[in-house]
Amino acid sequence: MGRKWNNIKEKKASKDANTSRIYAKFGVEIYVAAKKGEPDPESNRALKVVLERAKTYNVPKAIIDRALEKAKGSGDENYVELRYEGFGPNGSMVIVDALTNNVNRTASDVRSAFNKNGGNMGVNGSVAYMFDTTAVFGIAEKSTDEVMELLLAADAGIRDIVEEDEEVIVYAEPDQFHLVQEVFRNAGITEFTTAEIVMMPQTYVTLPPDAQPQFEKMIDVLEDLEDVQQVYHNVEFED
User: Fold this and answer.
1) Angle at CA 38, nearest 5°, toward 33 and 41?
2) Residues in domain TACO1/YebC-like second and third (predicted)?
3) Do residues 64 and 121 share a domain?
4) In percent, how much of the chain has pLDDT > 90?
5) Would the CA dihedral through 219, 223, 225, 228 be positive or negative?
6) Residue 135: pLDDT above 80?
7) Which is it for the CA torsion 9, 78, 83, 47, positive or negative?
8) Are 153 and 57 in the same domain?
9) Are residues 120 and 219 in the same domain?
10) Is residue 186 part of a domain?
11) Spatial distance between the Cα atoms of 198 and 134, rounded to a whole number of angstroms
12) Domain that holds residue 107
């Protein structure tokens, strides 16, 4: 399971590194999380999760601070959380999470991205049941045994621990995100290559060579949409 998540994150990171759009999206997500509760991560757990993920994507502090100040001040923008589900070729499944202040625009953009790139929208619930909400942490330069010993002692709701390319990937129950984070920090581990709550597919598919480019284009188009925050799928890309 570890390699599959790494492959997906590496694909996203290589593309996101070439654009500042990812920072703008984090700005919106931080603002929305802060407006839902207190703009203080110590008392707002949803905000704390977003900020931890932003850190692993190297979001500049200035952008984080601007979003928090906006939430503390007169910011009155209203965003709606939306989830779209759809299909690609060969049994591939896609989940699109969005934050938008214009529902009609977002729905139209997401539908167009599917339809123009060999996919199609599904009804609510048609795909999500094949994914599990999962807390994922990546830790560099630690052994699997060392990490396992820490987490098992804390009864931290661990689903799996995988060592891959000098990195340990920990999969945990989503409601244990903060406990896992606390266990690591108490052990002196404060830097993560990944720290987020994601939708993990229960099974993966590999597309035939002629179908993969179009699917990748569909994912790229969806991720580039202004209102889309996250895109999850069950395709294991081949190098």
Assistant:
1) 70
2) 79-235
3) no
4) 57
5) positive
6) yes
7) positive
8) no
9) yes
10) yes
11) 5
12) 80-129+202-233
218 and 160 in a single domain? The answer is no
- Among 72, 69, 73, 58, which Cα is nearest to 26's? 58
- Which one-letter amino acid corresponds to residue 156? A
Contact 138, 194 (CB under 8 A): yes
- Residue 238 has φ and ψ, to the nearest 5°, of -100, 140
Phi, psi of 121 (to 5 degrees): -70, 145
Which DSSP string do the residues of 129-188 spell out, in sequence order?
A: GGEEEEEEEEEES--HHHHHHHHHHHT--EEEEEEETTEEEEEE-GGGHHHHHHHHHHTT
Tell whether the model's pLDDT for residue 128 goes beyond 60: yes
Question: What's 139's domain CATH number?
Answer: 3.30.70.980
Report angle CA 206, 53, 176 to the nearest 5 degrees: 85
Q: Quick one: the chain helix, strand, coil %, rounded to 5? A: 45, 25, 30
Token pair in block for residue 32:
């929305």
Report pTM.
0.89
Query: What is the four-CA torsion angle of 93, 97, 222, 178, rounded to 10 degrees?
Result: -90
What is the spatial distance between Cα 68 and Cα 65, in angstroms, rounded to a whole number? 5
pLDDT at 68: 93
| Rg for the chain, CA atoms, rounded | 18
